[in-house]
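Please fill in the sequence for the structure shown.

STRUCTURE ENCODING:
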């Protein structure tokens, strides 16, 4: 389900978060899909449960998954709106950079730098 790169400088929780986010956004994981329990995924990946729990919390904060108590964690219908929200944020960024007089090439470099840092 998720592949980790032990040689990556990206922390394991972030690799888990990004892995699920990509699968949700490209619809590999459909709305309503139940994710493995924190403990099961942690055991499968050889991680501490807290590491997986942090990734799940961040996914939930982003609206990509929802936890339904003892029933588990599921891909949220709100995840369908993630790309739309990103598009709207990009439109606001474009409008702001135009108002500031920043040309498109410079604005793209600013966005690339921000994505690398994030």
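FILLED IN BY: designer on duty
SEQUENCE:
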């Amino acid at each position: 389900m998720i592949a980790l790169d032990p040689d990556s400088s990206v922390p394991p929780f972030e690799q888990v978060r990004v892995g699920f986010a990509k699968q949700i956004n490209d619809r590999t994981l459909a709305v309503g899909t139940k994710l493995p329990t924190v403990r099961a995924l942690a055991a499968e990946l050889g991680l501490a449960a807290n590491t997986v729990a942090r990734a799940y919390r961040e996914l939930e904060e982003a609206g990509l998954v929802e936890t339904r108590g003892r029933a588990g964690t599921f891909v949220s219908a709100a995840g369908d709106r993630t790309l739309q929200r990103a598009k709207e944020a990009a439109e606001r960024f474009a409008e702001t950079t135009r108002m500031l007089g920043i040309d498109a090439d410079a604005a793209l470099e600013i966005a690339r730098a921000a994505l690398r840092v994030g």
